[in-house]
């Protein structure tokens, strides 16, 4: 193991914006124009209907983080930006997946997914729809577990995050 500190490739920015038409398009457009890469993006209104919260996982290999933050602050509807330190952030992602699976393999799949606490939302003679939420790395693991069964369709929300509580 090296003594040098590994640089985190992805940073999670939480951007509080005015909840107005076109704001998300302006944020996404800024990333596109500047060549900044977004790994995931999730947006929803906050408890105050005047504001929305955008959680962006930014690939800092595509641009220095300071440059991304500086450019975001230039957008008129941006109220606040926080870079969440992964060591003190609570990060989650949600996934829905339709799996093509014969009835005789369902018990096997249910057994393999018990450690993930996944939920079967729907099933018919040939398929199942499952949901799972957890840390993004755990969602990756769950997706990898499902692949051999035959993923028909999959949807992931992208990362959402909050700062953990101070102790």
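-> sequence recovered:
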């Amino acid at each position: 193991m090296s003594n040098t500190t590994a640089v985190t490739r992805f940073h999670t920015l939480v951007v509080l914006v005015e909840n107005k038409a076109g704001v998300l398009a302006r944020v996404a457009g800024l990333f596109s124009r500047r060549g900044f890469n977004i790994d995931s993006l999730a947006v929803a209104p906050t408890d105050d209907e005047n504001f929305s919260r955008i959680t962006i996982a930014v690939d800092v290999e595509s641009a220095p983080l300071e440059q991304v933050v500086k450019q975001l602050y230039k957008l008129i509807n941006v109220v606040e930006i926080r870079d969440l330190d992964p060591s003190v952030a609570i990060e989650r992602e949600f996934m829905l997946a339709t799996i093509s699976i014969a009835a005789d393999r369902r018990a096997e799949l249910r057994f393999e997914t018990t450690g993930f606490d996944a939920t079967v939302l729907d099933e018919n003679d040939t398929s199942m729809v499952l949901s799972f939420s957890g840390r993004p790395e755990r969602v990756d693991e769950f997706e990898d577990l499902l692949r051999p069964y035959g993923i028909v369709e999959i949807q992931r929300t992208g990362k959402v995050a909050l700062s953990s509580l101070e102790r």
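The chain has two domains: 10-84, 92-163.
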